[in-house]
Design a protein that fits this description.
The protein contains nine helices and no strands. The chain is mainly α. The chain is globular and about 50 Å long. Keywords: Signal.
């Protein structure tokens, strides 16, 4: 009887510890995601962004079985790769982002639409850093990741947001521009309206950017 009671108490205690750890992880992620979302989207502060990326990496070190911290750290580095002052600086951040995404992919253990979308975003920003020399290789990678993401979850709105943004910022003489982007952006907007993230800390970005670009197509 005593052994049974002891076993039950040990089980309850272990469950309480797990729940406390999960709550601590979720709170740390929530705080950091809010900090990321609070940055100026048009001109994010690079130092603040680097600090946020570093915090996500510390969370990743403490939670090695979770792919989300690596994903968000990669997201920060992709943005840093966009706002970097030089091509060398941009590529440094993008290389880091690529490594983090590989880690996230390994942790996830199976095809993950959000990771594939971020890999597409990574390819898009890598191309933008040196479009004249990278459009062919990175354009192909972007298309490959987008296709793979659709196979995993065609309801992910960020797929169509990235497709739309890619066309939106492509010069008209190369088949891009506002008008051809509108179809993708309208689809993204529809998908965002129905989208619900798996949890409060799962990816939920891109809606504001979609609506901004969509508004531009109507002008």
């Amino acid at each position: 009887m005593k052994k049974t009671i002891f076993t039950a108490l040990a089980f309850v205690l272990s469950m309480c510890m797990v729940l406390a750890q999960n709550e601590k992880y979720t709170q740390a992620m929530t705080t950091n995601i809010q900090a990321l979302n609070g940055l100026d989207k048009e001109k994010p502060d690079a130092k603040a962004l680097q600090d946020i990326a570093n915090r996500f990496e510390r969370i990743a070190a403490a939670e090695p079985k979770e792919w989300l911290p690596k994903y968000y750290a990669a997201h920060c580095n992709v943005i840093l790769g966009f706002v970097g002052a030089s091509l060398e600086e941009k590529d440094k951040y993008l290389e880091k982002a690529g490594a983090l995404l590989k880690d996230a992919e390994a942790i996830a253990g199976k095809p993950n639409d959000e990771i594939l979308v971020m890999q597409a975003f990574h390819s898009q920003i890598h191309l933008a850093a040196d479009a004249a020399n990278r459009w062919e290789a990175d354009g192909a990678k972007f298309a490959e990741y987008i296709t793979s993401a659709k196979k995993v979850n065609a309801e992910n709105p960020r797929i169509y947001y990235l497709e739309g943004s890619s066309v939106f910022f492509t010069p008209e003489e190369f088949g891009g521009g506002k008008k051809p982007a509108k179809t993708f952006l309208e689809k993204a907007s529809q998908k965002f309206a129905a989208f619900k993230p798996e949890t409060s800390i799962h990816p939920d970005w891109g809606k504001a950017e979609t609506e901004w670009m969509l508004a531009q197509t109507n002008q």
